[in-house]
Amino acid sequence: MPLNSTRRHFLRQSSLIAMAPAIPAFLRPAAHASAKNNDERILVVVQLDGGNDGINTVVPFANDGYPQHRKELQLKTNRLAKVNDEVALHRSLRPLADLLDDVQFSIVQGVGYPNPNRSHDVSMAIWQTARFDRDDHKSFGWLGRAMDEHREANASGAADSVLLGTESPPVALRGRRSTSVSLAHLGDLKLRGKLTPKTPNVDPNDDLLAFARRASLDARGTAALIDEVAGSASRDGAPYPDTQLAGRLSSIAQLIKSGFSTRVYYAIQSGYDTHAGQLPSHSRLLNELGGALKAFQDDLNSAGLSDRILTLCFSEFGRRAAENASLGTDHGTAGPVFVMGSKATPTSPTRVTKAVFCGVSGQKFPLHLLLDYF
């Protein structure tokens, strides 16, 4: 190991351990992470907000109904990333086709639930709580409930889940006992660390801001720690595109590689409610998605962590088969779900039935398998 690398590793470890009593609870496990063999599995969730058009994402180009319902929005065959003789990925998702070839990517087609609801809020609440009763939609999410059980079995001071982004924390992460932290970006840690103990109106339940009150070290030392923890893991990582989603996944990768024991990470990509002028906006969104997911998986592969990380990508519903008069698509029901990782069961659509094409199949996604993953 090079001398400078050894020195950096020593300084990082010694400074973290010395600061353990003062740093936020969800940061503390990083102080000792490399002192043990950390082989715990991690779930990363990417939410496509707005209702992704599954038909132009996983394209049934060989189905006679496709050109019939998509006279203007039909994607030309020579500009698709073919999966097989019947189905192709949108050309913007070509990087994911490479992962499919490498058996690190899985497509689950036609995923939905019985009696689908086309309201964004209601459908997302069903996805995030895994419950149909509206009275349950303001309670606890499926990931929060899962982390409640994990917390009982494995007591830890770490945050059970982290949202990277400026959006409101998703209900999916809300648990009775489990804890969740929201970060706009890693620099947010440094910004909050610079707050003085006299900062007014600090929420006592905010673990990060509470840190500013009780920290015994000055802000410069805190910022240096955050820079070292977040920056040291990223220097040897794979390159990421210059997009918002890629930046968020890059931050997640940095936290994972730095040894944090958080088990669930969450990121949201918005803009999929494509009622008008869909072709250019949808292509841009999928280009951002494909590039970000591929870079994230490459980063995990290069760090030797791909067998521990599973990435789930979903949207609250799909879009209708028929295009509308505004060159867009309206709210539908079922749609494709992506699962990425070296431990993902390699599957891809072999044929598209009428039910799947029309978005009404309502195939259930096996959440219990994700929970078993932990």
Structural description of this entry:
The protein has 374 residues and is α/β, with parallel strands linked by helices. It has one domain (37-372): Alkaline Phosphatase, subunit A, CATH 3.40.720. Helices cover 35% and strands 13% of the residues. It is built from 12 helices and 10 strands. It has helices at residues 3-19, 65-69, 94-101, 120-129, 142-153, 187-193, 207-214, 219-232, 244-257, 278-302, 354-357, 367-373, and strands at 42-49, 58-59, 81-82, 88-89, 105-111, 161-164, 180-183, 264-270, 309-315, 335-340. It has a 7-stranded mixed sheet with strand order 5-10-9-1-8-6-7. Helix 3 (94-101) runs parallel beside helix 10. It is globular. The two termini are 33 Å apart. The model is unreliable at 1-23, 28-37, 193-200, 209-226 and 359-371 (pLDDT under 50).
Short description:
The protein has 374 residues and is an alpha/beta fold. The chain contains twelve helices and ten strands. This is DUF1501 domain-containing protein.
What assembly state would you assign to the polypeptide chains in this entry?
Answer: single chain
* Biggest sheet: strand arrangement: 5-10-9-1-8-6-7
Backbone CA Rg: 22 Å
Number of domains: 1
The CATH architecture can be named as 3-Layer(aba) Sandwich
How many DSSP E strands?
10
Name of the top-level CATH class: Alpha Beta
* Gross morphology: globular
Overall pLDDT confidence: 77
* Main sheet overview: 7 strands, mixed
